[in-house]
Amino acid sequence: MATSNDIKKGLCIEFSNDIYKVIEFLHVKPGKGPAFVRTKLKSVTNGKVVDNTFSAGHKIDEVKVITRKFQYLYEDDNGFHFMNNDDFSQIYLNKEMIENSQFMKAGEEVTIILKEADEVPLSAEIPPTVYLEVIEADPGVKGNTATNALKNAIVETGARVMVPLFIEPGDKIKVNTEDGSYLERVK
C-alpha cells in the first residue's frame, strides 16, 4: 500500500475499479490549507484519461506491472496477435488496448504491459516513431512550394498521413505515432 507521496510518472494504480497509469502529476503545497497531488491518469484497459486530485497521505493501491517485448504478427476481426520473442508463445489483445494501432506493421516490436500477479495483458505501447512506405499520395501541384503545403498520403499500414508536396509513392517516411505527423523522408 502506497500513499499519494509515492506518486510518480509511469506508476500503475488501482482506482475506480480499474487500473490506471500516472501520465502527469503535480505536488501542490498551497500557503493555506493541506497539500495535495493533482494527477492525470490514463486507463490501461480502455485508454480513457481522467484528472484526479489526491489529498496528502491518501492511501493508493499500487499495481505491480512488468513489460515484455512482443512481435506484432497480424490483425483479425477482434484484435491483434503478438508473439513473445523469448519463448514464441502467442498473446491476443483487443483493439481498445492499443493506441494508434494504424501505424503497426507486421514484424514490428511492441512493448506489452502485463499485470505481474497473473500476467494478464493490460495494454501495449508501440514505438514513438515508425518507418513506413508511402503507397498512395495526392499529386503535388508545382508552384505551391512557397509555403509549407501538405498533401494526403496513404502508407503501407493503411493509415493517412499529411506529408510535404515532394513525397511520392514508394518513398519511405518516418512518422510520429503519437499524433500521426510526418517527421522526415528516409533514404
From TrEMBL:
Biological process (GO) annotations?
peptide biosynthetic process
| Pfam assignment, any one | Elong-fact-P_C
* Gene3D superfamilies xref list: 2.30.30.30, Nucleic acid-binding proteins (2.40.50.140)
Where is the Translation elongation factor P/YeiP central domain positioned along the sequence?
67-122
To which pathway does this protein belong? Protein biosynthesis; polypeptide chain elongation
Q: Which part of the chain is the Elongation factor P C-terminal domain? A: 130-185
Where found? Cytoplasm
Per its UniProt record, what SUPFAM superfamilies does this chain match? Answer: Nucleic acid-binding proteins (SSF50249), Translation proteins SH3-like domain (SSF50104)
Q: Which UniProt keywords apply?
A: Cytoplasm, Elongation factor, Protein biosynthesis
One GO CC annotation, please? cytosol
Q: Which domain of life is it from?
A: Bacteria
Q: What is its main location?
A: cytoplasm
One GO MF term: translation elongation factor activity
Please describe what this protein does: Involved in peptide bond synthesis. Stimulates efficient translation and peptide-bond synthesis on native or reconstituted 70S ribosomes in vitro. Probably functions indirectly by altering the affinity of the ribosome for aminoacyl-tRNA, thus increasing their reactivity as acceptors for peptidyl transferase.
NCBIfam families assigned = efp, PRK00529.1
Q: What family does the Swiss-Prot or TrEMBL record give for this protein?
A: Belongs to the elongation factor P family.
Q: What is this protein called?
A: Elongation factor P
Show the taxonomic lineage. Bacteria, Pseudomonadati, Bacteroidota, Flavobacteriia, Flavobacteriales
Q: What gene does the UniProt entry assign to this protein?
A: efp
